[in-house]
Write a structure and sequence with these properties.
Blueprint (H helix, E strand, L loop, with lengths): L3 H16 L3 E6 L4 E4 L1 H6 L4 H7 L8 H5 L3 H7 L5 E9 L5 E13 L5 E10 L1 H46 L8 H25 L7 E3 L1 H12 L7 E6 L7 E3 L1 H17 L5 E10 L1 H4 L11 E8 L6 H5 L20 H9 L3 E6 L5 E8 L21 E5 L3 H13 L3 E5 L2 H11 L5 E5 L7 H11 L4 E6 L5 H5 L8 E4 L4 H12 L5 E2 L3
Parallel strand pairs: 7-9, 13-14, 13-15, 15-16, 16-17, 17-18
Antiparallel strand pairs: 1-2, 1-5, 3-4, 4-5, 6-8, 9-10, 10-12, 11-12
């Protein structure tokens, strides 16, 4: 009966129906469309007039049924059985994934208890699904990083033993010995392996390095050496560097990540192989503002990465930095996901320009402000003796490292006590603290946390000198934090023989020092 009350009720229902944040379709008992709400009309770019043409048509024959094909399930719903789909993949006409949907179908009953229609409810959960996948990937990467970090720690311990023993052998050889070249080769290989572990550690678990003046040419060269592996064996890389390039103030790991992101993009855009040309140059002060660099930048540095890949459409270029954008079949090979690159550039007050045409490749150009300080040069280690007569308690759970350390220290005049476990350290120190001038303490022992050991050592002898060592890789800022543990210094494994002796001498002589990179 068409009463004012019924009319108001219908209007209220229609308002709710059209303002729901999900799609709703109602059908009759034969599966023919009766109505669809505004959410669905907007999603399929339909007008009210288009909907009127769809009313009365079987669901499977409409645009809804062609993209969300659940016709077999609807037959069950017409028999009175509810239906449900979780993470239903909606595809476009090319078979490409368009969205991820949660779908429910509810039978509607008449006054006699018979099924006289149904309601289909559609919820788009694409963004939530993508975020869940991203979180899962992040968790997996974090776990992988932790496991890799422990493995690198163990490997650094072995390198520490190799380096120490090779340098100890060298110190006992005559300068004319024919075996000296072989020992040098062992030492060089161990040092190279040590640098590789440092780089690996920085990739799998970034430490947040303090920005420092760096040469962009050098960073690109080092990254090219990493990328020129079998993964990229079909790609030719050419370099055109400005040899007078000024330094940039940068986090080394971050900038290398940015470079590798661009390499990956270029490689994925050239599945059959191709060319990558990398050029660098200087930006005059007059042009820095137009390129988005800080007002304080009197000069800038640019690096252009040009590939011969598939290129991009205007639509793809406009959506490059959207976290979950996937530009369709052709652009699938572009390796997008430049959100992280954009964050790195923002952190460095840098900017990017992208030039690309479909079928003609792409050019990604990075712009950095110039650093005010020059690139620091690494001092060459001088082989000077660091002798002593003090007593040192050396603590390390790795037998080969402990044996090597004892040998080096004893051969240079020190009296050495050694321990493998935290419980042994405390027992020895309680009995002989008055004799011990320095404790060299590995950061990770299997039976005690380092804070507990340090607290007990300081309780027994408040003035005891403690030098922390570890095979885990830390940056300078992190290693300096060891002073907050009430310790005197830190030395990174694998350390060279003279680095260990110099650090021990510095601590004993009251010259507080942190050696995080030997």
């Amino acid at each position: 009966m068409d009463t004012p009350e019924n009319h108001d009720l219908i209007q209220r229902w229609q308002a709710i129906f059209n303002h729901l944040p999900l799609g709703v379709i109602t059908t009759d008992s034969l599966g023919r469309i009766l109505d669809a709400n505004s959410w669905l009309l907007e999603r399929f770019s339909l007008s009210t007039g288009d909907l009127e043409k769809l009313v009365g048509q079987p669901y499977s024959d409409t645009v809804f049924g062609q993209t969300i094909n659940i016709d077999k399930a609807l037959q069950k719903m017409r028999k009175g059985r509810p239906i449900s789909f979780t993470n239903f993949v909606e595809e476009d006409r090319y078979g490409k994934e368009r969205a991820v949907l949660n779908i429910k179908g509810i039978p509607l009953y008449g006054s006699l208890g018979d099924v006289n229609g149904g309601m289909i409810i559609i919820d788009d959960v694409t963004e939530e699904t993508n975020q869940t996948e991203t979180n899962n990937q992040a968790l997996m990467l974090e776990t992988t990083g932790s496991v890799a970090g422990m493995m690198l720690h163990d490997f650094n311990n072995l390198l520490c033993a190799i380096l120490g023993h090779s340098q100890f052998i060298k110190s006992n050889f005559e300068s004319e010995s024919p075996l000296l070249a072989d020992v040098d080769a062992i030492e060089t290989a161990a040092l190279t392996a040590s640098e590789i572990t440092r780089r690996l550690r920085s990739w799998v678990k970034p430490t947040g390095n303090t920005p420092q003046p760096l040469n962009l040419n050098d960073l690109i060269k080092e990254t090219v050496n990493i990328m020129q592996r079998p993964l990229f064996n079909k790609i030719n890389i050419s370099l055109e560097f400005d040899s007078s390039l000024p330094p940039i103030l940068a986090d080394e790991v971050d900038v290398k990540r940015a470079i590798i992101t661009l390499f990956s993009n270029a490689a994925k855009a050239m599945p059959q192989g191709g060319n990558i040309n990398i050029r660098t140059g200087t930006i005059p002060a007059a042009e820095t503002d137009a390129l988005g660099l800080p007002d304080t930048a009197d000069e800038g540095v640019w690096a252009a990465f040009q590939d011969t890949g598939v290129g991009m459409t205007q639509e793809t270029r406009e959506k490059l930095y959207e976290p979950f954008f996937n530009g369709g079949k052709l652009e699938d090979s572009l390796g997008l996901g430049l959100t992280s690159l954009q964050k790195i550039l923002k952190k460095h007050h840098a900017s990017i320009r992208v030039d690309s045409q479909l079928g003609r490749g792409s050019v990604f150009t990075l712009y950095f402000p110039k650093a005010s300080e020059p690139v620091e040069k690494t001092d060459i280690e001088i082989d000077t003796p660091h002798l002593g007569k003090e007593t040192v308690l050396l603590v390390d759970s790795e037998p080969v490292v402990r044996a090597m350390g004892c040998k080096i220290l004893r051969s240079n005049g020190y009296t050495v006590l050694d321990a493998e476990l935290g419980s042994q350290v405390l027992t020895i120190f309680r009995n002989r603290s008055s004799e011990i001038d320095l404790v060299i303490l590995d950061m990770f022992l299997p039976d005690y946390k380092i804070d507990g050991i340090i607290s007990e050592l300081k309780r027994i002898a408040p003035d005891v000198q403690i030098l922390i060592t570890s095979g885990f890789v830390f940056d300078d800022e992190t290693s300096m934090d060891f002073h907050h543990h009430n310790t005197t210094g830190f030395i990174q494994k694998p350390y060279r023989m003279n680095a260990l002796l110099a650090q021990v001498r510095n601590v004993l002589d009251g010259e507080v020092c942190t050696a995080a990179d030997n």
